[in-house]
Design a protein that fits this description.
Helix content: 25-40%
Strand order of the largest sheet: 1-3-2
């Protein structure tokens, strides 16, 4: 997986009619790097992918890491543990096919990666990682990734050893 995203907090976008102090208390803003908005990767995203990315950014938990000599920096505390299910997307008005295409596009352009594939039949959610590969999109340094294919679960029928929801042992 890619390395975590260490963000320097940019100037937050103020909400209409909500002061910054109140927004911090109630958590009604998303911090997004300005460089993301001007990147080739962001500009090439579909509108659905931008909405799905905003949902992912809402789910991240940022924490400030203080360094005695360097000052402080921001890191994503729950990176690799973020879930976003098809059922959640449907509740937000995003059809399953559009959600799947948006996830594929966000992976392909370096905004997210899959930490662990889920198994929808047994309600084991996929775990996502917010990635920073988008910074190199369109350059020779860009690392291409695609959604992993679920070959692991197509071999046999029923519960299998190593299934994420049921552990590694079969009785």
């Amino acid at each position: 997986m890619g390395s975590g995203v260490d963000l320097q907090p940019p100037h937050p976008v103020r909400l209409e009619g909500v002061g910054l102090a109140k927004a911090k208390r109630i958590g009604e803003f998303i911090v997004i790097e300005r460089s993301m908005f001007s990147s080739k990767a962001w500009r090439s995203l579909t509108s659905t992918s931008k909405i799905v990315l905003a949902d992912f950014l809402c789910k991240r938990q940022m924490e400030e890491i203080k360094h005695p000599k360097r000052g402080s920096e921001w890191a994503i505390k729950n990176n690799g543990k973020i879930t976003y299910t098809y059922a959640e997307a449907e509740k937000r008005g995003i059809p399953r096919s559009s959600f799947q295409r948006a996830i594929d596009e966000l992976i392909a352009k370096g905004f997210i990666s899959i930490a662990q594939s889920g198994a929808g039949v047994v309600k084991a959610a996929t775990l996502y990682w917010i990635d920073d590969r988008w910074k190199d999109y369109g350059t020779s340094r860009f690392t291409h990734r695609r959604r992993p294919r679920k070959r692991r679960w197509t071999r046999g029928v029923g519960f299998q050893k190593g299934h994420p929801k049921f552990g590694t042992t079969i009785r």
